[in-house]
Design a protein that fits this description.
With about 210 residues, this protein is an alpha+beta fold. The protein is about 40% helix and about 20% strand.
């Protein structure tokens, strides 16, 4: 585990012990997106294990309009085990501001849901989307684009694009697609640049990937 993430292991364990058995805390190393999970405190909530990848980082954190001070609090997702999870994510940066990792707090809302009349405030509220000023929108888009590009670099690793076979390129595109990378405007062009192909080729890879997933 790289040094910048080591202090967060204790933070993760402390949070899990503070909030009890319904709380899971996951630490990610975003230099290795395909195996980003490096520590899990109380994995019984979602079943995450070291070596797993992230699931909701792009869709519900990096692309969220609520990402302000490098964190998004209280978004919801359904885990593979069927549990409704209330989650908050903190982005971890180095001194230069580069994205290095993420700390995710996942709360199992099962028992809360069973007491819905008493704990209504803890349940999801309808999402409201307000329009941002154009300048703020542009700045946020540029900020997210940098983080998405770092994830791409991590996914591609140190391998020279010309050394990848067609099948290996498709596998990289498949991973990016399943993790929401291509929801970001301009990501197809960026992927084409990094893989040394044109964007038409990337679209053909995406068509193949999406066809296989149907």
């Amino acid at each position: 585990m790289k040094p910048i993430l080591i202090p967060y292991v204790s933070v993760a364990d402390m949070l899990a012990q503070t909030f009890g058995t319904d709380c899971e805390v996951v630490l990610h190393d975003l230099d290795t997106p395909e195996h980003s999970v490096v520590h899990v405190a109380n994995p019984s909530v979602t079943g995450r294990r070291p070596g797993d990848s992230f699931d909701h980082l792009v869709r519900q954190v990096l692309l969220s309009e609520h990402l302000k001070e490098d964190y998004v609090a209280n978004y919801y997702f359904t885990a593979q085990n069927g549990k409704l999870i209330r989650s908050s994510t903190l982005l971890i940066r180095d001194e230069g501001g580069h994205l290095e990792g993420a700390l995710c707090v996942n709360l199992d809302t099962t028992r809360i849901s069973e007491q819905i009349d008493f704990l209504q405030a803890f349940l999801p509220e309808p999402e409201t989307r307000g329009k941002k000023p154009e300048e703020e929108e542009a700045a946020q888009t540029g900020h997210v684009a940098v983080m998405i590009e770092k994830l791409m670099d991590g996914i591609l690793g140190n391998v020279c694009a010309s050394d990848l076979s067609r099948e290996e390129r498709i596998e990289k595109i498949r991973f990016m697609e399943t993790r929401g990378i291509f929801l970001m405007k301009g990501s197809v062009e960026k992927a084409a640049e990094k893989l040394g192909v044109n964007k038409v080729t990337i679209y053909s890879y995406l068509d193949e990937v999406r066809g296989k997933r149907k």
